[in-house]
Structure formats: structure tokens, C-alpha cells
Protein 1
Amino acid sequence: GAVVSQHPSRVICKSGTSVKIECRSLDFQATTMFWYRQFPKKSLMLMATSNEGSKATYEQGVEKDKFLINHASLTLSTLTVTSAHPEDSSFYICSARDFGTGPYNEQFFGPGTRLTVL
Amino acid sequence: AQTVTQSQPEMSVQEAETVTLSCTYDTSESDYYLFWYKQPPSRQMILVIRQEAYKQQNATENRFSVNFQKAAKSFSLKISDSQLGDAAMYFCAYRSAVILGAGSYQLTFGKGTKLSVIP
């Protein structure tokens, strides 16, 4: 099956620093990638949708300048949390849409990245 | 906008027994897709089962089956012969079949149901 990886799986940083999270589709081309945020015992909250080669579309309430998304190729999207603060601590999950899965256009999820900002 | 409601925050089931997780949704669309995802303690989201709204037949995947009631906008998941490995958070999700712009293919998730399996 289609595999999506995320790196790093866990990161701890100091307040004020920037952190980059990578999302890769390993065995398929991902025209669209999605970034989610999940708080403990909560559901996934969509942050943004990124299409390869174009600007990401952010959900209402998500700060574009704080959460920079780059989808430079069909297999890689990055989320950069700029000037991170403790309230940005969360679990970040990416998913990728396989262009060739027919009508379902199924999303495949990465294993997530735990961000802790001290 | 579509909404997905899972009214059972937590459920438990005895090993080898059957459990049903509830999901209702609200939409004005006639064509869409519905999904159940499993999130075990590892936090990896795993697709359990999916259903196309225009198909009347309920989807089945081994021990997992759904009861799709389109008129009632209900999409429940039945797990038969429950196993310890079934313990996880289960999320119901909706996706529109309409492909329009950047918002296409987005999933709308319910709040989840935590399933515990008792040995």
C-alpha cells in the first residue's frame, strides 16, 4: 500500500525557534497534501491543503505566516512552524492524496510528528 | 458546511463480542464518500472501511462492516469478533464527491470514539 513518512517523529525546541517538519510520499505521487493538527484526545483539525507547485490554502483561523507550507515536488511537502511558542505544542499529521486511486482519491496518512516547545 | 457527529466518546467491548460505533452526518449533497479511520496508540491513522453514497450495498471488510442509512444520514461501524488489537480511537469522516478548487478532497472528521477491548 501507499506509504507516507514524516520526519522528525518527535522534536523538542526552545520558544522562539523555527521547526521544519517533512512529509514524503514514498511510493506514489501526491498531487495534494494535507496538514492536520491534533490535540490530546481530540480529533484532527485541518490546517491547510497544499497542491504541488502552488500556494497552500489555509483554513480559517490558521496563521499563514506562522505555519509555512511548501509543496515543492510531488513527493514532498514541508510545514515550518516559525517562532514557535508553547501553545504550538501539538501532534502534527500530514496526509497525501494518491493521484491514481480512482474515485476514492484516498488520503494516506503519515505517522505524525510530536512537537514540544519549551 | 458538512458536519460529522460521533455521539459516543467512549465504548467498550468484551473480546470476541460485537460492538457498533455510531456516526451521523449532515450534508446537502447527494454524492459523497464516508470513511472510518482507526487511530491506535501509535497515532498512525489507518483506513478501516469506506462507502460511496450512491452504493446501496453496505461495505464490508473482514470483521468490519457498516450500516449505511442515506436517508437518515447515518453511517455506523460494526466490529465483529472483537480483538485486543481493535482497541483504538475510531474516527468517522466525510468527503464530498464534488471536485472544486483547492478545497476538494478534504476530509471532515467526527470527534472520535475511544474503543476499549476487555480481555
Protein 2
Amino acid sequence: ETGVTQTPRHLVMGMTNKKSLKCEQHLGHNAMYWYKQSAKKPLELMFVYSLEERVENNSVPSRFSPECPNSSHLFLHLHTLQPEDSALYLCASSLRLEPGLLNEQFFGPGTRLTVL
Amino acid sequence: KQEVTQIPAALSVPEGENLVLNCSFTDSAIYNLQWFRQDPGKGLTSLLLIQSSQREQTSGRLNASLDKSSGRSTLYIAASQPGDSATYLCAVGTTNTGNQFYFGTGTSLTVIP
């Protein structure tokens, strides 16, 4: 069982709804990541946090808003999404952010999001 | 921009066969390469991590090799089992692009009993 948990596992929302995805890691890691996985496409890195500071934001639309209140928790707040945002959203963590062995990534099970 | 390609996209083999999955990348300035497996509807499970200074890593029936100069990595699975059926993904951490990890689209493996 992975040390990274995500809730909810499945989410269906309308385009006008506001919802949040939650990620929690129990590994004592300092870096956390949000990825989007769409069918037939490579995983896309969305956001990276290191010690609760955002260090990467890969041109993600503002309808996705991340929050990292502490090094164990990561949220992705969603509002006015589009149907093309339907995907599997994966959270990951690593011990450190710096390149090398310490940034081996450990993933959560993902949240399957469907936008109607 | 780093591009990661995995061939084949799908592979079906009989149980017990040894097999090789391929991963190629366009920018050789990487600091590590990680292999994952993903079961349907689930997250990624880390299998092996190879540092740029290493040539291979082994874990049980799995062996991953890295040839930075040619931009290739292979994942060797010995004596395949039906439980090995999953999608296998490789990801590279690239030195020149900060904290980016680039993923391939994966190889879907089916091991037939």
C-alpha cells in the first residue's frame, strides 16, 4: 500500500461546480506534485511544491488552484472546469526536490475526475 | 523539450517468457530515469530508479539498464507471470529543465497464462 493517499477516488462535477482534491503523504517527504493523466497522453506535470513553496507551475489554467498548507498535505481546488479537464489526477511525493536519488517519486492512487 | 517514447505500445506474451520493454529519450542531459507500473484505474508504483551515473539496477525479476549517450533504457522482465500484466511507464528527470519529469505513454503488457 502506497504511503500517498488521495480523496476522493472518483468525482463527477458540473462545469459550474467548485470542488477540491486532497492528497496526503505519510512518508515524511518534502516535495509534492500534481499530475494530470489523460487517455493516450503522457502524464503532464501541473504543479510542484517543495517545503510548502510552489516551485513549478506549468502553464496550468487558473481554474486549477493548488494549495499546500504543510509538507504532508496538498490540495487542488477546481472551479468552472471544462469537459476536456476530465482525467485521472495523480499526486506524488519525493523526499527531496533536488535531482538525484532523493527525488524518487511515490504516487497516490489518483482521483478519476469527470466534468459534465 | 525532452520527448520520451516507449515502444511497443502494447505487448502480449505467454507466461514464462522473458521480455524487454524499451524507453528512448531525446535529451541525454538527464539526472535519473524511473520505471513505474500502473494497474488499470490505479496510481503508479515505482519499480526501479537509475541515476545518470549508473548503468543498471536490479530488483527481483526486473533489470533496468540505462545508456545515456544513445538516449535509451530497457526494462527486462524475467520469467513473466500473469501478475506482471500492467502498463509500464518510464520517466526521465532532465537536468536542463529544472524540476520537470517527462513521461512516456507506456507499454501495456499482457501475460497470458
